[in-house]
Every structure is written in structure tokens, then in C-alpha cells.
Amino acid sequence: MCKCLTALTRLVLLSTLIVGDVASAQVIEVKGGTSTLFQSQGGTILLHGPGINASAGAGLVSGKFFGGAKLVKGTKRSQFILGVDNIPFDLSTDIFSAGHYLTGVGAGVRTEAHGTKLYAFLGATSTSFDSPFFEGVRAERPAAIFFASRKFERWSASTKTILSNQITTIGDLAWVPSSGTKIAAAAGIGSNHLYAATSLSITRPLYDLQAAYIIASDQFRRANVAVPLISEPIHENVLLTLRPFKSLSLSAGRQNYLTPLYPSDKSVKSTVDQGGVEAHILGASLTAMIFQSKYGDSTNIAMAYSASRTITPRIGAEATYMVSRPDLSTETDTFDVGIQEVLTPRWTILQVVNVSDGQSTFGFGGSFLSNFATVSADYQTYYVPSRTTAPFEQALILSAQIHPVDRLTLSGQTFVAPDGRLLYTTAMESTVSRQFAGNDGRGERHVSGDMLLRGIVMNEKGEPIAGAALLLDNLPVYTDSQGIFYVRERKRHAHTLRVLADQFLEGGSYHVISAPPAIESSIDEQAQTIIVVQRVSSRKD
Q1: Is residue 109 within 8 Å of residue 81, measured between CB atoms?
Q2: DSSP state at residue 445
Q3: What separation in angstroms does the CA of 350 have from each of 224, 235, 312, 340, 437?
Q4: Longest pairwise C-alpha distance within the chain
Q5: Handedness of CA 431, 435, 437, 442 (dihedral sign)
Q6: Is the dihedral of CA 444, 447, 451, 457 positive or negative?
Q7: In contact, 452 and 522? CB cutoff 8 Å
Q8: Distance (Å, whole) CA 216 – CA 182
Q9: Strand, helix or coil for residue 416
Q10: Dihedral over alpha carbons 130, 136, 140, 143 (to 10 degrees)
């Protein structure tokens, strides 16, 4: 603790040097936009230099003005933060719900002493109004925060303490007795309410098992902040997946969640029981799922069946049938058939037929990929447990990134909100580089050519992430609806690769699990760099 306090003192001394570092920033980024998904409009300026990152942004969230600024100074062993900081608050028992965090406004430091990772922060906890364009905050309660964690050969332990008007102090311990097996426990108090949890995670070739039991009251929160709203697992949670054969997978599970309601201190309990089977037969993929959900006082039973097959190397087909049986409304059913054809490596087309409650509709979509623009239109179906009368929502998801001039990117995407509404986000971003000795100050321009820089960004579950932000040298790029980024150039070059973890179009912040420091262009159209990230913050309506 004393080392962290000493580091905090150093932070005050270093703050006078930060201004000079910002003035020498190598890369300056400007972005802004509007979003009904986040009910926000605004913009941010970001500065990146040797050992220094800074940002300042402002805008409207639900018609109210918010803003926030942040300076991060890095040294060989420590990182000093001044301003807004999103503080991860995951426990070893969070095998079903990673991504917990809280927001603070003040001064902090991350460092390491004798193998122990330390974090100290002094200031105030804050309500966070996140968006893809700026970070809006509102300081609320004075707080002192101290986190510590350490890993041993097969053990790891951590303690997390928040001293404010309500006290949080939770410790956890995890044991990995063998590869693919993890046992963990956590206990303490969160916002003055008792908390205890145990978890077991086993991964084997023939099966996967995740199980946890959590004891917490309806008023439990990890930190006494109104936003972000992140659901807490409660009571029994289990998911079992069996793979008796290579072509067959069976799954069953039960999830219990406690969802806080903004701006009150009340929460709603929800339960989802599910079972499923997935088989691969004669080149076709067959899936059947059943859900029984309860949200508040409403319940629903829903079933989904799907079949897909690659007919030729360029043509694929998929059919889906879904039925919903709510207790408070009439039964509904939907049948979809879609055919996708790859015309060229840059062009694909999609044709969809939908029959819902006896009414037929036809739709068309597809995608186009080039240096100037990446555009896609895709029909997707979502299961929305809170809509117990009609939980299946089919939506046309649009995604586009356009580069009209060098270093200027225009982007937009539609989303399905947690309540099933179709929302959108549009954004603009530009990058400027400063001149340095030995450099003529001109940015590298990526143009059409035979060499290809290609990669995919996905989460820890292997699911692609649309709108992921990356920086190739000084060139900002975004992934398309399939999580893929794509840049051509005339000659083979190696480029530094940086994941802009706090600038994804979906909003929130991400933690990089694995990413190479550099990427080299290749003539191989199939060559692909894989980047894995994990979401650590999000704003929920």
C-alpha cells in the first residue's frame, strides 16, 4: 500500500511534465458522431505520444451535457492516471459474466511490487455515460480505491476495496489443479451487503462444465454507482456441454441474473433455462434450442431450429424455424430461408424469405469490400428474454465504413437493443501525424495493390466483433460485420499494430487478450491475423 501511495505522490509531480508530453504527441485523432443506441451525440480528441496518451471529449447523452478527460503517463514499471479511469472489477468466480467495472474521477496508479500487482485511486466514484464518441462522467461520491492481486504457480488471489459512503471489500482465491480445471471462491461485502460465491470450470475434449453458486441480496452491487448497469449472476448458474461424437454436441444450462434498474436501487430477477443439440450430418449443420425464460412476473417458452449447408464453394443456404409460447399472449412462429452467394472476393449477395404468422416477406442483402468502402447488409435473429410475448426479433443489420480521403473514416452500423428496438450509430474519425527528425511528416497512404493486410477481431468465445478499431502505423481501420479488416498496398511492408480498445463502435472498453505487435502484408488472400479481445465495460439501457 505504501508503494502505491508513494507512486501517487510521484503522479502529482509528474503532472507538470505531462503537458509537455502531450504537446509533442505523435498522433492526434479526432472523432465524433451520433447514436440512438447510446442516445448520444458528441466528439473526442485523442493524443498519442511517447509514453503518454490523453483524451478529452464532450457531448449530449439523452439531451444532457456530459464530458470527460484523461491523461495516462507510462513508465517502465508504472502507469499514472489523471482524470477519468474505467476500473475493471472482475472476480475469479465470474465465469458467466466477465466485464464488471466502475468509473472513477481523480488520480490513480497501476504498478507492481515483488510480484504483486497494485492499483490505487483517490477521487470520486462516478456515474458513467459511455458512448462510441466520448466518455461522459458525473462525479458523485468521494472514494479511495485499492486493488491488489498476485499469481502463484497454480494459485491466484486478489482483494478489492472501495472506501466511500458505502463499503466494498471482496477477496477471491482461485486454484488451477490441472490444465482445463479451475476452482474459485470469493467473499466479502459489496455496498454494505454480504456477498459469497463459488465456481467450478472444467474443459475436456468430451465435455465442458461451468457451475457457480452466488449468495447475494437484491440490493447487492459491487460499487455504489448508478451506471454502468451490469447484471449480476445470483443463486445457481450452470452450463454443461457434451461432445460424445465429433459431429454431435449437447448442451443444457440454467442462468439466474439480478439486473439493476436505473436510477432506482431496485433490481429485477430473471431466469433462463436452456437446452440444445448441434449435429453435423452429410455436410449440413443442424441445431435445435429450447428456452424457458422468466423476467419479473412474465414467462415464455421458445424453440429455435436451424439447418445450414454449403452447396458449392460459392453458395450457402440456411433455414430457421422459431416458435414462441408466452403465458400472457398468443403463440407466434417464424420461418426464414436465406441463400448467400460469393460473387467475387469483394462482393457477396444475400436473399432472404421470411414467413411470420402467415405473412411472407422477401429481403435482399450482401456485402462489398474495398479500400474505399466496406459495406454489408445482413439479416440476423435475436432472442430477447425481456420480451416474453415475442422474444425473437429479426432485424436487417447494416454496417459501413467509408474512406473518402486519406485518414478520414466515416462509419455507421445498426444494432438491436436489449429490448429489441433497432438502433443505429454513425461516426467520423480522422488522424493527423506530427513531423519528427528523419521523417518528412507525411503519413503513409495505403492504396490498391497486390499485397493484402487482413485480420479478424473476435472475443474470447470466438465470436467476431464488428466495428473494432485498430491502428496500422498511423492508419485507423475498423472491422466489418464479420469482424474482418482489410487493407491493400502495392509493396510488402511490416506495420505496427495497435488495438484501440476504448474506441470500438459498439462503445465500452475492451481488454486485449492476444494481438501481435506488428502485421506484414502478404500476397496470400487467405492469410489472416487473429486478434482476441474481451469486453470489460458497456453501458446498458
Answers
A1: yes
A2: P
A3: 47, 43, 15, 4, 51
A4: 72
A5: positive
A6: positive
A7: yes
A8: 22
A9: strand
A10: 80
Cα separations in angstroms, 145 against 7, 224, 290: 14, 13, 43
Cα within 13 Å of Cα(329), Cβ side: 17
* Paired strand residues for 430: 30, 408
Q: Which three three-digit cell numbers place residue 143?
A: 472514494
CB 468 within 8 A of CB 481: no
DSSP string, 138-204: EEEEEEEEEEEEEE-SSEEEEEEEEESSS-EEEEEEEEEEETTEEEEEEEEEETTEEEEEEEEEEE-
Residue with cell 459431429: 247
Strand 451-459 to 529-537 pairing: parallel
Closest-CA residue to 64 (of 143, 124, 145, 137): 137
Per-residue pLDDT of the chain (541 residues; tens, 9 = 90+): 343 434 333 433 333 444 444 445 556 878 888 887 667 889 988 887 767 888 899 998 878 888 989 998 888 788 899 999 988 899 999 998 777 888 899 999 999 998 899 999 999 998 877 677 788 888 889 999 999 999 988 999 999 999 999 999 999 999 999 999 999 999 999 989 999 999 999 999 999 999 999 999 888 888 877 666 677 889 999 999 999 998 999 999 999 988 776 656 677 788 989 999 999 998 899 999 999 988 777 888 999 999 999 998 889 999 999 898 888 778 888 888 989 888 887 788 888 887 876 667 777 777 777 767 778 777 665 555 555 566 666 666 777 878 777 667 787 877 666 555 667 778 787 766 554 333 343 333 334 456 778 889 988 777 788 778 888 877 777 787 678 887 777 677 788 888 887 777 666 668 888 888 888 887 766 678 888 888 774 443 3
Closest CA to 523 of 485, 494, 489: 489
Task: Specify the length of the chain in residues.
Answer: 541
* Chain position carrying cell 453435423: 280
Cell numbers 449440413 correspond to what residue? 284
pTM value?
Answer: 0.66
